[in-house]
């Protein structure tokens, strides 16, 4: 056990490595950090990593106002061995509210103190679930994917919740659902609940809220694993409330002892399955985005066919006499337009096929330069576009294809020539148009089935199979599966909707509001 002199030397050393924020009791200091900026995150470190030391990596997730930032600092002070009688408080977090740079979406704090038994990496996701929209959150997910390639494994996913809550808000359900949607089934036993603003009493109502929201987490004797904290440790000392403040300190200190004991005993999980889950989610979204474009084309072609049939019927005499006539029809065409992102600070680019004129991956892999490495490519060919074209026929830019219509004057003569010089009557012209529609329908059915199988694949490996991000597309898929005469597959998706429960259905409204 460290002597009093050793403790004083340790605190003095930490103060020398900090800058003063506020002179009071406890005095507030900000640790001097070294900051490294990467494409998808920034890393802020205190001290130097010791490769021979045990190392823990945790992900912190919580809605604004739950005390996540304070809790990170509580964790740091525990690691540094700070006691209440030291009358100091160290902070590692900073305010990103004025910084909207994409590189600061995720902050990785590395705490490598030579006096601590463990090195610690804390991944903080500021902004998750805020009003900047679901596209912003998808970028966070993609950044976490890129980050996972550097980190390789994770020890704990910490869901931060206010202990006084009686019900999780739609936004909280969405935040936790979105984060859990990133992981494979194997991570469940590493997810824990951190209750803040706690009085130390059993958080019965908060636990009920978590259960009703069907949040998956580690269990002990079939009960959620949780830890209690009071976020008052950094408050200025007040003689009138000295007893309460002392209890607050003890409660949080006790919670940290239990939490770090959990970290010592839990087996870290590799992020390989997480990468598989994210890959399949990206492919599912790419399939559905492309499918929506093809459905629009098919509907517009159907409209064109109907107008052509009406024109042929109306001018039957001219058709029989093989005479020419003029008529108007609404025809579809594709046009490439600039992407108009909802939020200026988001990078939005799409991978598009210039041959098929289709959006193969939107929003695309913004960090990929070589398109052969795009998520929708397999063996150098696209898995999404109609002709499965080589990646070299694709471009990545801030533009997407959209379908538009225009009224065009046509003649019977032009219509015949378009399809076949040997066509001699109106019936065969209509047949040719119907053949086009049948081909479009076949392609649409293939894509609908492919999207369904991606949902099935996610069911097998994802921790959160009935994710809100999947549920967003379920109604669209159900409708198209029914049209494709696939009632059993449609029923499977209907069951996923039912299983999702009332809480997630409410949260879906939250997502749709910000799309």
Automatic annotation (TrEMBL):
GO terms for MF: GTP binding
Keyword Ligase: no
Pfam families: AIG1
InterPro entries in the cross-refs: G_AIG1 (IPR006703), P-loop_NTPase (IPR027417), Sigma_54_int_dom_ATP-bd_1 (IPR025662)
Keywords from the UniProt entry: Coiled coil, Nucleotide-binding
Coiled-coil ranges (or none): 274-322, 423-450
Highest taxon, organism lineage: Eukaryota
Every AIG1-type G domain range: 56-206
Family, similarity comment: Belongs to the TRAFAC class TrmE-Era-EngA-EngB-Septin-like GTPase superfamily. AIG1/Toc34/Toc159-like paraseptin GTPase family. IAN subfamily.
Protein name (record): AIG1-type G domain-containing protein
Source organism (scientific name): Culter alburnus (Topmouth culter)
């Amino acid at each position: 056990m460290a002597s009093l002199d050793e403790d004083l030397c340790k605190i003095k050393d930490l103060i020398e490595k900090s800058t003063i924020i506020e002179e009071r009791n406890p005095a507030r200091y900000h640790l001097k950090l070294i900051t490294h900026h990467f494409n998808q995150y920034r890393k802020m470190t205190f001290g130097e990593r010791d490769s021979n030391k045990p190392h823990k990596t945790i992900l912190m997730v919580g809605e604004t106002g739950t005390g996540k930032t304070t809790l990170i600092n509580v964790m740091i002070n525990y690691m540094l061995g700070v006691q209440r009688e030291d009358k100091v408080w160290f902070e590692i977090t900073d305010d990103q509210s004025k910084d909207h740079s994409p590189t600061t979406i995720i902050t990785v704090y590395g705490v490598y103190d030579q006096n601590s038994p463990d090195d610690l990496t804390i991944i903080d996701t500021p902004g998750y679930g805020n009003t900047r929209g679901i596209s912003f959150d998808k970028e966070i997910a993609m950044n976490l994917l890129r980050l996972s390639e550097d980190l390789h494994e994770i020890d704990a996913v910490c869901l931060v919740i206010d202990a006084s809550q009686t019900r999780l808000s739609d936004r909280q359900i969405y935040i936790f659902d979105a984060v859990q949607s990133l992981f494979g089934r194997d991570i469940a036993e590493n997810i824990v609940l951190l209750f803040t603003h706690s009085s130390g009493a059993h958080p019965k109502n908060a636990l009920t809220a978590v259960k009703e929201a069907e949040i998956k987490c580690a269990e002990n004797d079939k009960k959620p694993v949780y830890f209690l904290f009071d976020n008052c440790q950094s408050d200025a000392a007040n003689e009138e409330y000295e007893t309460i403040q002392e209890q607050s300190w003890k409660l949080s200190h006790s919670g940290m002892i239990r939490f770090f004991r959990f970290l010592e005993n839990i087996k870290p999980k590799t992020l390989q399955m997480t990468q598989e889950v994210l890959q399949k989610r990206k492919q599912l979204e790419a399939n559905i985005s492309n499918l929506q474009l093809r459905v629009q084309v098919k509907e517009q072609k159907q409209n064109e066919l109907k107008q052509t049939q009406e024109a042929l019927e109306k001018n039957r005499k001219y058709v029989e006499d093989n005479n020419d006539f003029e008529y108007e029809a609404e025809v579809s065409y594709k046009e490439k337009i600039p992407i108009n992102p909802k939020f200026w600070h988001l990078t939005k680019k799409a991978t598009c096929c210039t041959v098929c004129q289709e959006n193969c991956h939107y929003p695309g892999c913004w960090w990929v330069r070589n398109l052969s490495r795009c998520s929708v490519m397999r063996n150098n060919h696209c898995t999404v576009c109609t002709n499965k074209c080589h990646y070299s026929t694709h471009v990545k830019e801030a533009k997407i294809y959209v379908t538009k219509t225009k009224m065009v004057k046509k003649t019977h003569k032009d219509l015949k020539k378009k399809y076949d010089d040997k066509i001699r009557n109106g019936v065969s012209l209509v047949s040719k148009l119907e053949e086009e529609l049948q081909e479009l329908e076949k392609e649409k059915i293939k894509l609908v089935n492919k999207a369904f199988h991606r949902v099935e694949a996610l069911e097998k490996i994802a921790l959160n199979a009935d994710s809100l991000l999947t549920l967003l597309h379920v109604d669209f898929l159900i409708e198209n599966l029914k049209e494709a005469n696939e009632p059993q597959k449609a029923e499977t998706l209907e069951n996923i909707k039912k299983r999702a429960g009332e809480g997630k259905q409410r949260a879906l409204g939250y997502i749709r509001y910000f799309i």
